């Protein structure tokens, strides 16, 4: 089977990818990029092609956990973007924690203002 072949995907997975692709194209994303995003989303949700013979399938609990993590991350992102001064309202410990997650070096010696500026540059 050729690389990039979609034979191992179910009809439902193919339809889902097509709908996702259409919605991204409607937002102005190129066809190639929309297709790439669509299949990546299908793979994230379902663990890849699941017809018989496609290897091991991802357990439903793992898929559910991945969707939950993705939804939580999306909610955090929306909340952070909704409040432009959200960083200023957070404690320095919370800012350092965010800086740690974004691998900002020198964070332990930074002041609150420096942390905020570094976090905004890493977005």
UniProtKB/TrEMBL annotation:
Residues 1-90 are annotated as: Disordered. Residues 8-35, 61-81 have a biased composition (Basic and acidic residues). It comes from the Bacteria. This is Plasmid stabilization system protein ParE.
